[in-house]
Design a protein that fits this description.
Blueprint lengths: L1 H12 L2 H4 L31 E6 L5 H12 L3 E3 H10 L5 H8 L7 H17 L5 E4 L5 H10 L4 E6 L2 H10 E4 L5 E3 L3 E3 L8 E3 L6 H4 L2 E2 L6 H24 L3 E5 L4 H11 L4 H9 L1
Parallel strand pairs: 1-3, 1-4, 2-3, 4-10
Antiparallel strand pairs: 5-6, 5-9, 7-8
Helix pairs in contact: 1-6, 4-5, 8-10
Bound molecules: adenosine-5'-diphosphate (ADP).
């Protein structure tokens, strides 16, 4: 982790040619050979210090599933979107520049995002964190290449939902401005096309003490979500190809809301939630 932090820092402050000078692979976890059938080995989930990445379109639920897994695996969930929003809500020098970019549905520059990520890793390192689940990073092939230069990502989970569901989910998303929890007021029932199953998702409603404090993300308007989806297809789908080529991509079509999807995702990852309960009570 220390090496990742240091090297990210040197990546973010050096010219792009210098980035290639970064020594490869200082991760403690050896890269796993994951070929066509990707199935992580079944071991005690805690203490594995996994280095995983979550990919997926806006609204797919990367944050929800990555944060649940981070609790299960005992590693930090690091979402670059959250880092950007923290910077936005501060009065720092980047705040205005970031607001303009995010509210157009565009991507922040690789340099800025790597800088924010380096700082977050440094803070984590000081607290003794190791391993991570990255959410929202890498989002360009350039970011994926830089990440590859500094560490070995073991597994990349690609969450998928049809585009009309993604739009409804983004428009229904609400956040409690006090406790920070995410909710969703959308009730989704979409007929499956081309032989795909129907998708239903019940709303995830807030408890009464959050109701009066709900806010909507400024970039969750229909125009901006459509632009974010377009940018994802343009800039981030090539990242899926990048990891598919390395045999690290686990494709996961979400079958519905959290109650249906979570157990299936654990199964796909060869994890058992009871492992966590056992180790938590041990
Ligand atoms: P989404 O719901 O679209 O996946 P996120 O919460 O991950 O959104 O990110 C919000 C915004 O922060 C993005 O639209 C983008 O402007 C910026 N951002 C987050 N991660 C990155 C990244 N890795 N590279 C560039 N911009 C990023």
């Amino acid at each position: 982790m220390a090496a990742v932090t240091r090297l990210f820092r040197s990546s973010s402050s050096s010219s792009s040619s210098a980035m290639f000078c970064i020594r490869r692979s200082l991760s403690t976890a050896a890269a796993t050979e994951l070929k066509s059938q990707i199935c992580p080995p079944r071991v005690d989930p805690k203490g594995r210090n996994v280095q995983w990445v979550f990919l997926g379109c806006p609204g797919v639920g990367k944050g929800t599933y990555a944060s649940r897994l981070s609790a299960l695996l005992g590693v930090p969930h690091i979402a670059t979107g959250d880092l950007v929003r923290e910077e936005l809500s501060s009065s720092g020098p980047l705040s205005k520049q970031l607001a303009d970019i995010v509210n157009q549905g565009k991507l922040v520059s690789d340099e800025i995002i790597i800088n924010l990520l380096s700082k977050r890793l440094e803070v984590g390192e000081a607290k003794g964190e190791s391993g991570f689940i990255l959410d929202g990073f890498p989002r360009t092939v350039r970011q994926a290449e830089i990440l590859d230069e500094v560490t070995d990502i073991e597994l990349v989970v690609n969450l998928k939902l049809p585009e009309n569901v993604l739009l409804e989910k983004c428009l229904g998303r609400r956040i409690c401005s006090q406790c920070g929890k995410n909710f969703n007021v959308a009730s989704i029932n979409v007929k499956g096309e081309n032989g795909n199953p129907d998708i239903s998702m019940a709303p995830l409603l807030p408890p009464s003490h959050c109701v009066s404090k709900l806010i909507t993300r400024s970039d969750d308007t229909e125009t901006i979500v459509r632009e974010r989806l377009r940018v994802y297809n343009d800039k981030s789908q090539p990242v899926e190809d990048f990891y598919r080529g390395q045999g690290k991509l686990l494709e996961f079509d979400l079958p519905g809301g959290i109650p249906e999807s979570w157990p299936k995702l654990l199964e796909a990852l060869n994890l058992d939630e009871n492992d966590d309960k056992q180790s938590a009570t041990a």
